């Protein structure tokens, strides 16, 4: 079975977003990521309208707050019938467990963000003052997430083998920071091509600008999907 390419919908307006989606054939079962940019502008009605069009939704809100607040927020989101939701693993064990409890009874998978793919070893050591190698920090946060009920993590593809070894082969590794060979890296630091992510064992890749800013977004999606699911 093919693994999903999750398209990150980071558009400034909903008209541009719908135009982008209209390039795809109606029967293309897309998996879409709604992040902070679009959610802050269009909120839940936008999520609902995309669910009603039959898309799978990854709601990337990266919640990070005290356990009670996160639990109550997750209780609300549990009613939205989205496929995936993110919290920050650095919110700690209690917060991750509270998020999972808030989602109880829903089919929404809880994913914990480890080290953002826009942060490299330099930022980790010098800005965040984390005295660990990036791969060890990501593995540590993944174990914390696993031990507290998360269904998976967000990491770069580069850490997937270590995460699976430290947790379980079933623990989901969803990986942004994907760049085909010809694409600009931009603000991402820990990147992999779709083929490399496949070989490293990612369960799903998240791709934004290489698809949404391509001249032909549909063709860019097909090319990435072919490389990823080869
Ligand atoms: O560590 C993380 C967590 C989330 N993201 C999100 O994924 C997409 C990537 O978009 P590109 O345009 O392909 O860079 C974006 O929505 C981020 O918010 C991430 O990149 N890294």
TrEMBL record:
The Orotidine 5'-phosphate decarboxylase domain, residue ranges: 4-224
PANTHER family per the UniProt record, alphabetical: OROTIDINE 5'-PHOSPHATE DECARBOXYLASE
Entry keyword Transmembrane helix: no
Cellular compartments per GO CC: cytosol
A GO BP annotation: 'de novo' pyrimidine nucleobase biosynthetic process
Family: Belongs to the OMP decarboxylase family. Type 1 subfamily.
Top-rank EC class of the record's enzyme: lyase
Catalytic activity: orotidine 5'-phosphate + H(+) = UMP + CO2
Name of this chain's protein: Orotidine 5'-phosphate decarboxylase
Annotated residues for binding of substrate: 10, 33, 60-69, 117, 179, 188, 208-209
Subunit structure, interactors included: Homodimer.
Catalytic residues (UniProt): 60, 62, 65
Entry keyword Lyase: yes
Listed InterPro entries: Aldolase_TIM (IPR013785), OMPdecase (IPR014732), OMPdecase_AS (IPR018089), OMPdecase_bac (IPR047596), OMPdeCOase_dom (IPR001754), RibuloseP-bd_barrel (IPR011060)
Keywords, comma-separated and alphabetical: Decarboxylase, Lyase, Pyrimidine biosynthesis
EC number from the UniProt entry: 4.1.1.23
Gene behind the chain: pyrF
Source taxonomy: Bacteria, Bacillati, Bacillota, Bacilli, Lactobacillales
Pathway: Pyrimidine metabolism; UMP biosynthesis via de novo pathway; UMP from orotate: step 2/2
Cross-referenced Gene3D superfamilies: Aldolase class I (3.20.20.70)
GO molecular function: orotidine-5'-phosphate decarboxylase activity
Function: Catalyzes the decarboxylation of orotidine 5'-monophosphate (OMP) to uridine 5'-monophosphate (UMP).
């Amino acid at each position: 079975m093919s693994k999903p390419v999750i398209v990150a919908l980071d558009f400034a307006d909903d008209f541009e977003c719908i135009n982008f989606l209209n390039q795809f054939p109606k029967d293309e079962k897309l998996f879409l990521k709604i992040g902070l940019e679009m959610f802050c502008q269009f909120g839940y009605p936008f999520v609902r309208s995309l669910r009603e069009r039959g898309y799978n939704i990854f709601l990337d809100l990266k919640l990070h707050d005290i356990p009670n607040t996160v639990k109550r927020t997750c209780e609300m989101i549990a009613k939205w019938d989205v496929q995936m939701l993110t919290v920050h693993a650095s919110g700690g064990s209690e917060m991750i467990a509270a998020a999972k409890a808030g989602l109880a009874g829903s089919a929404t998978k809880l994913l914990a963000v480890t080290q953002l793919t826009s942060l490299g070893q330099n930022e980790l050591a010098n800005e965040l003052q984390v005295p660990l190698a990036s791969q060890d920090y990501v593995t540590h946060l993944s174990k914390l997430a696993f031990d507290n009920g998360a269904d998976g993590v967000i990491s770069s593809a580069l850490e997937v083998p270590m995460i699976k070894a430290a947790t379980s082969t079933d623990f989901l590794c969803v990986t942004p920071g994907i760049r085909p060979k010809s694409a600009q890296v931009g603000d991402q630091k820990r990147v992999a091509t779709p083929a490399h992510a496949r070989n490293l064992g990612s369960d799903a890749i998240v791709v934004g600008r290489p698809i949404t800013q391509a001249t032909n977004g549909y063709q860019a999606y097909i090319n990435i999907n072919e490389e990823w699911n080869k």
